[in-house]
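User: Run a structure prediction on this.
Assistant: Running it now.
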Amino acid sequence: MWWRKLLGIGLVVVGVVAGVCAQDLEELVDMRVESSEGVLAGEESAPPFFAQWGHILPTVRVLPRGMLDFRVAHHFAKLTGGVQTMFGFAFVTDAHIGFYYGLTDRLTLGVGYYKGSWVARRLLEGRVKYQVMVQRGGVPVHLTVVANSVYVVGNQSPYAPAELTSLERYSGMVMVLVGRRMGKLTVQVSPYVVYHPLGPLAHNGVYWGGGLTVRYLVVPIAALVVEGAYTVNPAEPGWYVAPVAVGLSILTGGHVFSVRLVNSRGLLENQFLPFTIARPWLGGVRFGFTITRYFGLGV
């Protein structure tokens, strides 16, 4: 019958595409492992990070032209819940799914969806990332600029106003990323400005501060990453705590897998940078992970 022929043709096409993608991914993994090994040898061509994110902060790395980055990330509830919450795994405090594409070797564009973790929930994001400088030759650092625009599309939490105006639904972030690789060690500083209108009435909604990312390459396919950030003028100074994270970033078969302990509920910089209040020393620690999958589209 016609539908059987159509199904057969479809399966052949899927098989061919899967074979081509698998070959591309194997080549990609080989190249990335070789690049990581280059860090051990101190080669200038070696990348400073495996992926576009460390744990909670973006990195100076951008995508090569024609490369698609598919990202899934989760943060869970506090570990102090014990077996009743499976140490937090029973509840997801924030979730993110996003697609990012290397338009050129320096310019990466992306779109993403966030569950949201503070007043505003169900968020759509547009993101642009541009690499201004690359550390090589006489250039001492990597320099990248990243910015986003976020729109609230869903119902708000009980803590938000009943109805949001159009302006209250928008937030944005601009961050300058400056990183230097020194053999196995990479250090990045990240000054930022965040605009988020949903906050205390006495606050103008503009927050600023800086972040720090330290990465140490343990083996060619695994790195220890420690991150933190501090907002100078947070929404609630008496409650605010700097968001911090520590964990491993691992290269595995076409993926970059990041596992971490973190005190921020949220995954979106616009929310966790000015609004984190969980104190790690009082049990405010949770588990999080990110899976990044690369696809070479060859476009």
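The chain is about 15% helix and 45% strand.
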